[in-house]
Each structure stands twice: as structure tokens, then as C-alpha cells.
Design goal:
Elements lengths: L1 H33 L3 H21 L2 H7 L7 E3 L6 E3 L1 H12 L3 E14 L5 E14 L2 E17 L2 E10 L11
Parallel strand pairs: 1-6
Antiparallel strand pairs: 1-2, 3-4, 4-5, 5-6
Length: 177
């Protein structure tokens, strides 16, 4: 009987040890998942934003489509008064039209800031760009365009879900009585 009880105690101890060890591995795995290389994530997002500019320059719709999250719950606000586009279907229609309208596009990024939340699932960014292109055989330049946006990380891939572009205006302050 003593051998039987001793055997049960040994087995129970073994199972407790193994289960504690497994919790420790899961905990270590969890900690490893929480270790985020912020610099690497920012570099990845910066490269995606560079790719987006290059895609617009070259008229590469497939690359642009690969950067955006294909969802009805995304938003693009452009520089036109009525340019509020909701959902990939609406956004992609305007992008295709724009790619077919402008020629010799060159975009230079003059300033860029990227922020990431604690678990690296959401990022937001600011860029200042110079946008040069030919429209109806006339060279056009917009300098200091402000480009902001939000990206989500899904399935280990950063995707654009919101963007807003604005052109700075020189406002004149008028005194009123």
C-alpha cells in the first residue's frame, strides 16, 4: 500500500512539475510576443509609405491595392472639398481615375513621423510631401502637402485603413469690430 501511495505521489509531483513547466513556456512565449522592436516596425511602415509613393509615381495600382486594407470600413479624405471616400470600392475607383489622369508623377517625402501603440497593432503617421506631375500637358507642383494616416497590423502585415491629405493655405487674419 505504501508503494502504491508513493507511486501516486511521484506521479502527481511529476504532473504538477510538467504542468508548471508548460505554463512557464507559455508565459515565456507570451513575453516574447510582447517584445516589440519598435524601430523595426517603424522601418517597415516607412518602407510601405515609400512603396505607396513609388506606386503612385509608376501608376502601379496592384501595389497600392496591396497596401490598403480591402474593407468597407476604411476612409480616405483628399484635398478636394467633397473628397471623403469610404470603403475600398469607392477609394479604388478614385485611385484608378487619378492614375489615368496624371503623367510623370514624382513624389518626394520631406518629413515623416511614425507612432505605434504598445502592442504594435496600430500605427499612425505624418508625412510632408512635394507632389509633382503633368496634367493636361502642364507641369504642376504642390509643395508641403500634409499626409496623415492610420495603419493596422493584421496577419503580421501593416495595412492602410485611413488617410487624410491637405494642402496648406496661407490664411489672412482680418480684424472685425
Amino acid at each position: 500500500m505504501k508503494k502504491f501511495i508513493c507511486s501516486i505521489l511521484v506521479l502527481t509531483s511529476f504532473f504538477l512539475f510538467v504542468s508548471c513547466d508548460n505554463d512557464k513556456v507559455a508565459h515565456n512565449d507570451k513575453d516574447q510576443n510582447l517584445t516589440i522592436d519598435v524601430a523595426q516596425e517603424k522601418l517597415e511602415i516607412s518602407q510601405i509609405l515609400d512603396n505607396l509613393a513609388t506606386a503612385y509615381e509608376g501608376g502601379n495600382f496592384d501595389l497600392i491595392e496591396n497596401i490598403w486594407l480591402p474593407s468597407k470600413d476604411i476612409l480616405a479624405v483628399g484635398t478636394d472639398n467633397n473628397e471623403k471616400l469610404e470603403g475600398w470600392e469607392e477609394i479604388s475607383t478614385i485611385i484608378k481615375r487619378q492614375l489615368g489622369t496624371f503623367e510623370e508623377t514624382f513624389i518626394s517625402i520631406t518629413d515623416q513621423d511614425i507612432w505605434i501603440n504598445d502592442d504594435a497593432s496600430v500605427a499612425w503617421f505624418f508625412e510632408e510631401l512635394n507632389y509633382n506631375f503633368v496634367y493636361k500637358e502642364k507641369a504642376m507642383t504642390f509643395t508641403g502637402i500634409r499626409f496623415t494616416g492610420v495603419m493596422l497590423k493584421q496577419d503580421s502585415k501593416w495595412r492602410l485603413v485611413q488617410q487624410h491629405m491637405s494642402i496648406p493655405a496661407a490664411l489672412e487674419m482680418v480684424e472685425t469690430n
